[in-house]
Amino acid sequence: MSKTIAINAGSSSLKWQLYQMPEEKVLAKGLIERIGLPDSISTVKFDGRSEKQVLDIPDHTLAVKILLDDLIRFDIIQSYDEITGVGHRVVAGGEYFKESAIIDEEALEQIQELSLLAPLHNPANADGIRAFKEILPEITSVAVFDTSFHTTMPEKAYRYPLPTKYYTENKVRKYGAHGTSHKYVAEEAAKVLGRPLEELNIITCHIGNGVSITAVKHGQSVDTSMGFTPLGGVMMGTRTGDVDPAIIPYLMEHTDDFKHAEDISRIFNRESGILAVSGRSSDMRDIEAGIDENDHSSILAHQMFVDRIQKYIGQYLAVLNGADAIVFTAGIGENSVLVREDVISGISWFGCELDPEKNVRGAEGDISTPDAKVRVLVIPTDEELVIARDVERLKK
Fold first, then answer.
1. C-alpha–C-alpha distance, residues 281 and 193, integer Å
2. Exposed, middle or buried, 337 (CB in 10 Å: 0-12/13-18/19+)?
3. pLDDT, average across residues 80-102
4. pTM for this structure?
5. CB of 77 within 8 A of CB of 53?
6. DSSP letter string over 144-178?
7. Shortest CA distance to 115 belongs to which of 265, 6, 267?
8. For the segment 97-114, what is each residue's pLDDT rounded down to a tens digit?
9. pLDDT tens digits along 136-181
10. Is 146 annotated in the active site?
11. How far apart are CA 2 and CA 8, in angstroms?
12. Would you place residue 87 in the very low, low, confident or very high pLDDT band (cuts 50, 70, 90)?
C-alpha cells in the first residue's frame, strides 16, 4: 500500500501529514517549528501519542531528514521507499497553474518566480520542495496551489479597473487564495445538504489568521475576497484587507514610516488588522478575552472584523443571486461561537438564522434553525487530504 505525505512549508516551519492511500487513513502528522533558529521544535503525533524534541534545525533539508527519520524511529514506516508521493501546498500559482501539477525544474522555477505574488509564502514553499527533492528525488512530487480553484472566476471578477497593459504585461489581476480549503468545504457542504454540488450556490468563509470569502456557484469559484496577493479582502489577524489605495501616497508624504516598498508591505501585512486595532493580539481568543473585560479596543477590533465579513457575504449573495448555504471553516470559523453568532445575526434579513443550541464550540454540520432559508454550516477544513488526493490522481 502506498503512502503519501502532504507538506505545508512556512519560512520557519514545516507542517506535515502522512496518509495511507487510497484508504485516506492518517498514519501520523507533525510540525517542525523555529527552523533556522536555536531550539527548533519537532512534534510527531501518531497512535494517540505525541512526541516532541528540541534541537537546532538550520534549514528545511535537515527538517525533512528529521521528519523522515522520526517516521522510521517510531516504527510508522520501515524505510523511505514506502513513501511514493509528496504533495506541497503552494500559495500562488498565478496564471501558470490552473490546477495541481507534477513538479519538474520548470515548475519549480515558476513557483519561485511567483514569489512576487506571495512573498511571505512561495519562497518557503519552494524551500520545502527542494528539501524533499534532495532526499527523495524519485518519488512523485506534486504542487497543489491555493489559487487554482479560483481560476474559474470570470474576467469581470478577476480584472482590476486599471490600464490594460498592467494586466497583459504585469499580470496584475485577482488571484485569490485558500482555494484548496474552499474547494474541500464546498464539496463537504453538498454532502451535508444532501444535494449535488452542481445545483448549489454556496458562500464559503475561511476565517483564521488569514481570511477569505468565496462565492461558489455550482462547484466553481466565481469570486473571492483575496486579490492580487493574500493581503486583499477582509481585515485579518495582522493584514489590513481592503483599504483606500490613496492612503499609501498620503502616508508616504506625511510620515516617516512609509519610505520604501518594504515598509508598506511590512506594515500592511504584519502590523495591521486585528493586532493593530486591538493593540493586544492578532489571536481572536485574546480579543474575546478582552471583550469579556469590556476593553474598548478589543470590542472595536471584533466589530470591525465582523463588519468586513458581513459585507463580503452580502456582496456574494448578490453575485450568486442568493445562496443555499454559508459555510464557516478554519481556526476562527470553526471555533468562535461569538464570531459566527455576530456575523449571522447581522444578515438575518437574507433568511439566515442560527440555532443557539447548535452554535456551540466544537459544532459541526448544520447549525441553522429548522426554518432558515439559507443554511449555515460549520465544516472543519482538511487541506492536507485534498493535497494527498491530488498526489494520487497525478501519480504516473
1. 36
2. middle
3. 89
4. 0.89
5. no
6. EETTGGGGGS-HHHH--SS-HHHHHTT--S---S-
7. 265
8. 989 999 998 999 999 888
9. 888 889 999 999 999 999 999 999 999 999 999 988 999 998 999 9
10. yes
11. 20
12. very high
DSSP state of 119: T
Helix 337-345 and helix 296-320: axis angle, to 10°? Answer: 60
Tell me whether strands 211-217 and 49-55 are parallel, antiparallel or unpaired.
Answer: unpaired
Q: State how far the Cα of 219 lies from the Cα of 190, in Å rounded to an integer.
A: 9
- Whether residue 379 contacts residue 329, with contact meaning beta carbons closer than 8 Å, is answered with yes
SS3 115: helix
Please say whether the dihedral angle defined by the alpha carbons of residues 105, 31, 146 and 284, taken in this order, is positive or negative. negative
Candidates 127, 146, 223, 382; catalytic one: 146
DSSP 138: T
- Residue position matching grid coordinates 503512502: 3
Cα separation, 252 vs 254, in Å, equals 6
Buried b (16+ CB within 10 A) or exposed e, 11-44: ebbbbbbbbebeeeebbbbbbbbebbeeebbbeb
- Number of helical (H) and strand (E) elements in the chain, helices listed first: 14, 14
Pull the grid cell for residue 331: 481556526
Compute CA distances 286 → 211, 297, 331, 334, 393, whole Å.
17, 12, 14, 16, 41
Of the candidates 182, 167, 188, which has an alpha carbon nearest to the alpha carbon of residue 223? Answer: 182
As a whole number of angstroms, the distance between CA 380 and CA 369 comes to 20
pLDDT at position 291:
96
CA distances from residue 137 to 84, 85, 104, 129, 203 in whole angstroms, order as listed: 11, 11, 11, 10, 40
Contact of 232 with 92, CB cutoff 8 Å? no
